[in-house]
From TrEMBL:
This is Equilibrative nucleotide transporter 3-like. One of its GO terms (molecular function) is transmembrane transporter activity. It comes from the Eukaryota. It is found in: Membrane. Its main location: membrane. The keyword Transmembrane helix applies.
Length: 405
């Protein structure tokens, strides 16, 4: 057997350490961008006329979508290890650039610094286009727990940045200098964390026995994307479904991912940050809503670990995803007539359902396919996810109709 003399041992050795590393790598995938979203009060203070929360989100999307689409098309020939390392390195450089820009401009507002922020956001998008699809494809050919841990890490980055924002907002005065100190602290932590991810993926993750086992197994099934991490022979030429065939066989899963995120991003974060009115929580209100979403999104991604309540039916998943569209009128009428308690509850459900359905789809879809097909399907589903995010970010502007620019 080409992928291990003792398959049972190799397939489990280092599993829990691998899950922890995947969680950290998932964190690193969105930590920098979530930092930009979570300090929206600082950017709103600096750029009050430019709708920074919405513009930053919308700027991010075309670059991550285009990068992911290119890699999805060429997925079978791309060196996954180099792709992911390049992405995490770009994350580190972007976070560092945000600090340099703020220091260079002395924390001033204006169009030039705002354009700089948008350029940094675009680089974050290119980095995420490298990593999110690359890691999902790489982990899809391994055990489902790795995918679950990676996407739980994605959600945890939002929860962690929200918690840090509460601490910095309470520690520093609610002033320009206080907001600026909090922002710099965020990006300093982000720089450190992204560098840690580069080291983990380069030197720790590929040496785990379970990772070597699954990559060798994928190579034996015809995968060309894992060869750089293996001391293996040339993979055999094994017949596999192409990307178009995989899409046709999994069109419902692709639609699931698209609809989950078009709904979520049409509400989060722009609507929550700008269109929910004024309440007794004052300037804390938007932060509480964003934190509620992030925490429940994280919880939702762990619920599928309970086998009895994990949704596996393809029809059941599609019905659940479509039924979430009812949240749009629910948010509209709650913002117009409801109080902050109802809005927090709705936001929490938005996060919970987003995390739960994402993990259910991504852990069920790859089952029954060969390694190269699982890698391709993982990239394809992430492309649909990002397409939903992009369309949702565009639709988020619809909430401004009738309110003036």
């Amino acid at each position: 057997m080409a992928y291990g003399k003792d398959p049972a041992l190799s397939a489990s050795q280092g599993k829990y350490w691998g899950m922890f590393v995947c969680w950290l790598l998932g964190n690193g995938c969105l930590f920098g961008f979530n930092s930009m979203l979570t300090i929206e009060d600082y950017y709103t203070y600096l750029f009050p006329k430019y709708h920074p929360t919405r513009v930053v989100t919308l700027t991010y999307q075309p670059f991550i979508l285009a990068t992911t689409a290119i890699f999805t098309y060429h997925e079978a020939k791309v060196n996954t290890r180099l792709r992911n390392l390049a992405g995490y390195t770009l994350f580190f450089l972007s976070s560092f650039a945000a600090i340099v820009l703020d220091v260079a401009t002395s924390g001033r507002g204006g169009i030039a610094p705002f354009v700089g922020i948008c350029i940094i956001t675009a680089v974050f998008g290119i980095a995420d286009g490298h990593v999110q699809g690359g890691m999902t494809g790489d982990l899809s050919l391994m055990c489902p727990e790795f995918i679950q841990s990676f996407f739980a890490g994605l959600a945890a980055s939002g929860a962690i940045t929200s918690a840090l924002r509460f601490v910095t907002k309470a520690a520093f005065e609610n002033s320009r200098d206080g907001l600026r100190k909090g922002a710099m602290l965020f990006f300093s932590i982000s720089c450190f964390f992204e560098l840690l991810c580069v080291l983990l993926y380069a030197f720790i993750f590929p040496k785990l026995p379970i990772v070597k086992y699954y990559r060798s197994k994928a190579a034996s099934e015809g995968s060309l994307t894992v060869a750089a991490d293996l001391a293996a022979e040339d993979p055999a030429c094994v017949e596999r479904l192409n990307t178009k065939q995989l899409l046709l066989h999994n069109i419902d899963y692709a639609l699931d991912m698209f609809l989950i995120y078009i709904l979520t991003l049409s509400i989060f974060p722009g609507f929550l940050a700008e269109d929910t009115g004024s309440h007794s929580l004052g300037s804390w209100y938007a932060l509480v809503l964003i934190a509620s979403y992030n925490v429940w999104d994280l919880i939702g991604r762990y619920i599928p670990l309970i086998e009895q309540i994990k949704l596996r039916s393809r029809k059941g998943l599609l019905v659940a995803v479509i039924s979430r569209l009812l949240l749009i009128p629910a948010f509209y009428y709650t913002a117009k007539y409801g109080d902050q308690g109802w809005m927090i509850m709705l936001t929490s459900f938005l996060g919970l359902s987003n995390g739960y359905l994402t993990v259910c789809v991504l852990t069920e879809a790859p089952k029954g396919y060969k390694g190269p097909e699982q890698n391709a399907l993982g990239n394809l589903l992430v492309l649909c996810l990002l397409g939903g995010i992009f369309c949702g970010a565009v639709l988020d502007w619809v909430w401004l109709i009738g309110k003036g620019w």
